[in-house]
Amino acid sequence: MRVLITGGGGFLGQKLACALGQSGRLRGQKIAALTLADIAAPACPDMPFPVTGVACNVAAAGDVQTLMAQPFDVIFHLAAIVSGQAEADFDLGLQVNLFGTLHLLQAARAAGNCPVVVYASSIAAHGGEEPEVIVDGVELNPQTSYGTQKVMGELLLNDMSRRGMVDGRGLRLPTVSIRPGRANAAASSFMSSIFRDTMQGDTSNCPVAKDYPIYHTAPRTVIANLIHAANLDGAAFGPNRCINLPGRSDTVAEMIAAMTCVAGAEPANRITWNPDPTIQAIVKGWRGHVRPEKAQRLGFVTDASFADTVRWFLADDIAKAS
Amino acid sequence: MRVLITGGGGFLGQKLACALGQSGRLRGQKIAALTLADIAAPACPDMPFPVTGVACNVAAAGDVQTLMAQPFDVIFHLAAIVSGQAEADFDLGLQVNLFGTLHLLQAARAAGNCPVVVYASSIAAHGGEEPEVIVDGVELNPQTSYGTQKVMGELLLNDMSRRGMVDGRGLRLPTVSIRPGRANAAASSFMSSIFRDTMQGDTSNCPVAKDYPIYHTAPRTVIANLIHAANLDGAAFGPNRCINLPGRSDTVAEMIAAMTCVAGAEPANRITWNPDPTIQAIVKGWRGHVRPEKAQRLGFVTDASFADTVRWFLADDIAKAS
């Protein structure tokens, strides 16, 4: 069982690698080797199996072909240009999010072993003419270039799965909060930083109103769902391999209240409230309420509370780092 | 007003050119020049304005850039690899249907005049997990590579329209019947040939059962709808620029009965009934019943009867050719 994670240097890639290291198994088999690929060669945590960090620009077909010259059995495709950056640079988003996915899927097809491909799509797939509460089976009408490129990748994944070239599974990730590390160019970056940074003594700005609803999920839960997606039988997904992942719908105010319960009153006082029209324009096109019934039937999970998320953040990302 | 038709050598491209020649106007303005582009330089019918036929492989970015070096005001993008061929050759379909559309839209963006782009998508966008009767707003789940590539183009068109790069309008065409000329590699080819060929004294095979429902439209009606799409204000489409076009739902048996009413009993006797599993596998993924309410609100039209279609075919394609 050879496993590849693209975007392996990102926080999800690193957490996924650690989770695979802890279990040592995937799809009922022992993991023999793990490759972490990213634009710069990622750090390789200690594992009970060999781990290799590889520098690979997925926008370059040759890079991807070299990376995948030896077939993988399971591929987690997490590499992407995030929403804010893809909105600012249309062509870069196309190169990485659309062509990167195409290169990866073509290399997986060329390997000839019909590998399992777990594809990180996004709840940003939704917006525009869709209903306020997203149910399964509504026409995707993304209102960002990032969301558009993610959905184009979904379609390719579905078609190549139908043709038996790959065994794809696409997950539309809710906003992952609380994301560790530093703020990034994702329009959703504030949905982590107003908790992460303020709990560590810094100020952080919230660019939207307190009643803005966020459809979110904790890093621990996303990792569990990514691994669950790999373990499932592909046929269980039916003709459409791409699903809305479970998440929680909470307003910014509700999430702050949960943080206050766990971490006291100080962090919330460090949040500033300056509206940002650019970020608002992007995130107001998203949806805060989703009923992911197909994913629930398939056994994907969600968080019981945002208070859990705060506790996990303190345990996983602060206690370990200090 | 400079107009471009890709796929200008095809039967729809040629009929569209003739219709533009007859009216001489588009979007309230006089047409100054028309360019017909296709893989081989198309025939140029006599027009009240200059018409140029250009050989252009849309899969080659350079070809498209050369073609579009001088900006067009309205572009009808009809060029495509049809369903049967895109299913037989995955990479060719990607090159022409996905990359060809990308090249065209990028060249239209580079022109800097935000041209109107009328994009021919297909009812093959639908299938898989969608309901038996298609209504507006259902998640597209194409079950062919052709349908997949068409939907990927729709997403790109929507995103580039949202960004103001082009002013796109995407129409999911029903099966166009009765298509003149010869049988082609479209899986739907029989939906024309069992009428066209038998009315001209030849035999023709029907690979599906008599109760198979076809969502179809006449060439005259499609041409009227393509021109209507160009004439509309883009904002009328809302955030989703791509719509299901109106058509008629008739079974094969009902369409044959209409032909018999107009053309007598002989043609129907020339139909053979040998099932074809390859064609069935493709067309059974399509949908025979659609409620295109958004398109109807926007003023797109359908045929009153298939008997009209038969009469129009005899008048437009047989009488003129003989």
Task: Give me a quick take on this structure.
Two copies of one chain form a homodimer. By secondary structure, chain A is of the alpha/beta class. In chain A, 41% of the residues lie in helices and 19% in strands.
Descriptive account of the structure:
The structure is a homodimer of 322-residue chains. Chain A has 322 residues and is α/β, with parallel strands linked by helices. Chain A folds into two domains: 2-174 and 218-244, Rossmann fold, CATH 3.40.50.720; 190-213 and 248-319, UDP-galactose 4-epimerase, domain 1 (Alpha-Beta Complex), CATH 3.90.25. In chain A, 41% of the residues lie in helices and 19% in strands. The first copy, chain A, has helices spanning 11-23, 61-67, 83-88, 90-111, 145-162, 190-199, 219-231, 252-263, 266-269, 277-283, 293-297, 306-319, and strands at 2-6, 25-26, 29-30, 33-38, 51-55, 74-77, 116-122, 133-135, 167-173, 175-176, 204-205, 213-217, 242-244, 248-251, 271-272, 289-291. The first copy, chain A, has a seven-stranded parallel β-sheet, sandwiched between helices. In chain A, a hairpin with a 2-residue loop joins β2 (25-26) and β3. In chain A, α6 (190-199) runs parallel beside α8 and α8 packs across α12 (306-319). At the A-B interface, α4 and α5 of A face α4 and α5 of B.
Features:
homodimer; 322 residues; alpha/beta; Rossmann fold; UDP-galactose 4-epimerase, domain 1; 2 domains; seven-stranded parallel beta sheet; three-stranded mixed beta sheet; 19% strand; globular
